[in-house]
Design goal:
Length: 165
């Protein structure tokens, strides 16, 4: 009996540890779905999250440092705390084969031009007035917190070069 329980426990653990891959399925200029599939992204559909907003970016990485891959989606929308349509970041987790929101951001810094996941951080290229900033954000107690400013108050070309490296 103990061997059977151990076998079932190991089988359940193996099933729950299968690779899962996020992707973004853009249907129109104001509708996309965040998709979670088994394996490398071509496996069975596990979960889908409707994003009824224009999207401007997508990346994946372990944003909160828990060892699992999270999805970072750039959406354009107004929020309750910042009621102007702007570029926002949403971060989603995978929990037992389901997509769950980790952070649905209202505002980080200046206007987000673009973002990407780099070495445990979300790197953002911001525009503030006519100047550009590149900032790395790491997971804090409630959402992303500024971890490191790579450059600030510069021109777009310089900022873009630093953002990409």
């Amino acid at each position: 009996m103990q061997h059977a329980l151990l076998y079932i426990t190991l089988l359940l653990m193996a099933c729950s540890m299968r690779a899962q891959t996020f992707s973004l399925d853009v249907r129109s200029d104001s509708l996309a779905y965040l998709v979670l599939r088994e394996g490398d992204g071509s496996g069975a559909l596990l979960s889908r999250w409707r994003l009824p907003y224009p999207t401007y970016g997508f990346d994946t990485g372990d944003v909160d440092g828990d060892g699992s891959t999270d999805a970072i989606v750039g959406v354009i929308k107004a929020t309750r705390f910042h009621p102007v349509k702007a570029r926002r970041l949403f971060v989603f987790k995978q929990v037992e084969g389901r997509i769950r929101p980790l952070w649905l951001g209202s505002k980080l810094g200046g206007y987000i031009e673009t973002f990407r996941y780099v070495d445990g951080a979300v790197r953002c290229l911001h525009k503030v007035n006519d100047k550009y900033h590149v900032v790395d954000y790491q997971w804090g107690s409630f959402g992303p917190s500024k971890a490191h400013t790579l450059i600030e108050n510069t021109d777009r070309q310089t900022a873009q070069s630093i953002f990409e490296n």
